[in-house]
Every structure is written in C-alpha cells, then in structure tokens.
Amino acid sequence: MVVFETSAHYYRFFANESRRGGSPLYEKLSLGIADDVALQRLAAGRRKGQPAANLVFGAVQYLLLGGVDHPLKEYYPSLGGTRPADDRAFELFAAFCGAHEAELVDIIAKRATNT
User: Fold this and answer.
1) Sign of the C-alpha dihedral, residues 58, 60, 66, 72?
2) Where do the structural domains in the chain lie, given as residue ranges?
3) Of 17, 38, 94, 110, whose CB has the highest number of CB atoms within 10 Å?
4) What is the mean pLDDT of the chain?
5) Model pTM?
6) CA-to-CA distance for 88 and 24, rounded, in angstroms?
C-alpha cells in the first residue's frame, strides 16, 4: 500500500475524491502532485497506515497556520484566502514544498491525521 499511496495513480484518485467532495483546491494540487515525483516522495517516510495526501496537505497547512508567510495562503479559505483554485495554486504549492521540504518531511514523519 505504501507504493500505491505515493504514486501518480493514487494522487489522481485523490484528485477525483477531492472533486467529488467539493475541494477544488485539493483536486488541483493532487493532479499536480500526480505529475511530480519529488512531491509524491514527500510522504514516503510517513507512519504506517497514514494517508499520504492528507499528511502532505495537512503539513503544508500546518506551516501556513504557524505563520509562514507565502502567497499560497491566498488559496486557503481557512487562512482568509479567497482565490479560486487555478494553475498558479499548484505552482505556488510546488514552490512552497521545495522551500520547506525538510520541515514538511519532518512533520509528515512525526504526525498523524484523524482522516
């Protein structure tokens, strides 16, 4: 299951589930991750049984909530953002993940999600 949950197929599946669940941002981001092997690997060190996508998105939001200032916030309603999901959202997400990779990997390895 670990291989599946860090694969392009998994993130495309998650994108579809996000679309059906009413989250256009996570749909857009998941489709981008599906085409980016480096981003797929962010969750490789997660705890057994923890869902990769939920941890990646949760870790990013955790850093943003913690005060990291980044234009990606504009896409998160929970952070006061009002921008609709678009191609720029993934570009900013990828840049954010690249700039904070070590922190994200550490959070993903140590945290768990209830989802």
Assistant:
1) negative
2) 4-110
3) 94
4) 92
5) 0.90
6) 13
